Amino acid sequence: MKSCILLSALILVSAGALTGCKTKVERVAADEQIDISGRWNDTDSQLVSQEMIADIAQRPWIEEYTAKNGKKPVVIVGTIRNLSSEHIETGTFVKDLERELINNGRVTFVANKTERGELREERKEQQTWSREETQKRLAAETGADYMLQGGIKTIIDSEGKRSVKFYQVDMEMVHLETNEKVWMGDKKIKKYVKKSSVKW
């Protein structure tokens, strides 16, 4: 009898443990700020891209170019180098920059190097397989006037379960023909991370 009671208790405890370990998933808004590890995340990417593009747009180089050439400058996003000690998905950051550039509307934006390959392949196939009146011309692309380049760096100071993470994103707008730099900007993010001492 005593062994049956003990067995029942073990089953109940095991069932409770299994229930407690069950993964819970909750849908949240895409723009909700959630920090779990303290590392670079989607909130940092969106915050930096929005502030960078806002700064680019209010500087005089756009008005100067438009007044001189009678059209908006054409911009392409180049390489954003990850020079930090963390794995940062720069592709997501580049897309955030592209979205902000397009939505800003003060510059004309063209496809980047990776996207152009697929588009050119499609145009080539159209020359063979599409009706003539629907074919898109080859070698009729809009060339960019400026390239946006940059990098992400980190400085980390840590001791025990505490750390301070300092991110600096440097970017610059460079004229593709003359290599003249018409804009330079930076955005800094500092985080204090304190890990819990409780282990489950």
TrEMBL record:
Residues 1-19 form the signal peptide. Keywords: Signal. InterPro entries: LpoB. The keyword Signal applies. Pfam families: LpoB (PF13036). PANTHER family: PENICILLIN-BINDING PROTEIN ACTIVATOR LPOB. This is Penicillin-binding protein activator LpoB.
